[in-house]
Design goal:
With 198 residues, the protein is mainly beta. It contains 2 helices and 12 strands; from the N terminus they run αββββββββαββββ.
């Protein structure tokens, strides 16, 4: 009987070994469209589970804040996004229904997930061992088109420069224009995927 239980335990461990969940904490902003602008950055924790060449993203206890108003949304989980290796990064993208469930932060009695159990979303991003960067595009009924940006993609204009920067420390403007060298005069530039202030 002991051997049988040991075999079952070993089999369960083997099944769970295929999936790896990582936790990332970084800035998150919500782009409300051209007319409204972008929210102030908040610190958010995202769980990324990698399995069978795919990833699941889960943003837990998301509270949407605009001005002095907080709207508790809940947990947002988008599953089975296709992963492709890209050097030291792994890129993911895909479309699907994000599952919305009630959050568990104290002090909030109502969560938007009570009204909507799912939302069509499109995801695009990449991750390394220590960073996660993505954008989620979606449309909220009565609100319109929105985009959640996480990690380095929270700053407008960085997405193109961060994605296209080769490992040779290429220099870009915030508008995404490649420069031959880092200018001596003042400004903000992207060098090798990192922001540099002169």
């Amino acid at each position: 009987m002991k051997h049988f239980l040991l075999l079952i335990f070993a089999a369960l461990l083997g099944l769970s070994a295929g999936a790896q969940t990582r936790t990332y904490t970084d800035n998150l902003v919500v782009d409300l469209g051209e007319k409204t602008g972008t929210t102030a950055p908040i610190t958010a924790t995202v769980y990324l589970t990698e399995h069978d060449g795919k990833v699941d993203l889960e943003l837990r206890n998301f509270v949407f804040k605009v001005g002095g108003t907080s709207t508790p949304v809940g947990h947002i989980k988008l599953s089975d996004l296709t992963v492709t290796p890209d050097g030291d990064k792994k890129r993911f993208s895909g479309k699907g229904k994000a599952k919305l469930t009630r959050g568990d932060l104290p002090g909030y009695l109502f969560w938007m997930s009570s009204l909507m159990s799912s939302l069509d979303m499109e995801a695009d991003g990449y991750f390394t061992a220590d960073s996660l960067n993505f954008a989620l595009d979606f449309t909220v009924p009565f609100q319109g088109r929105m985009k959640v940006k996480y990690g380095q993609w929270t700053t407008t204009g960085l997405r193109t420069a961060v994605n296209d920067a080769p490992a040779d420390e290429a220099v870009y403007t915030l508008g995404g224009r490649r420069l031959e060298a880092l200018p001596a005069r003042g400004g903000v530039y992207i060098v090798g995927g990192r922001k540099v202030v002169r």
